[in-house]
Design a protein that fits this description.
single chain, alpha+beta, two-stranded antiparallel sheet, 3 helices, 10 strands
Length: 153
Amino acid sequence: MGYHVTILRTDQGKQLPISLEEAVSVTSSIDGWCYIESPPTFEFHGKEDSCTLWYQHGELWTKNPEEWQLGVMVDLAKRLNARVRGDEWETYDETGNAFQHPDDIPLRKEGEARSTELLAKSMQEQRFFRNAIVAFFVVLGVVGFIIGKWFES
């Protein structure tokens, strides 16, 4: 598993998808970017290294970017009237600093509530299976005890 970083556009807590056509148009006007159709991918070729972004569900994303790649992503995001957000709901600015974007506050709370709900459900299922296994062995022990007493007499 890696650290997922996304270029996305939001307005008042609602996500506004970036169209593929818009992303192709913007990247074609910037030196170093090229578009690959299948799967929809954008590659930036710098002086020494490259950065690959995948297009999916109205977002551009990558995993485990280096600091310089974040800068390239922030530049592209500005041109798309979007922003760069990491896995932990932090938004990156031009200087590489991270901050909490106002649009992410309700989304983060919703995500944390959903995570807590899923964890509680998982714990309930685990408790059920653990108790079922313990009950099985208790019944098996009782049956063994009864059979043992029966053979004694």
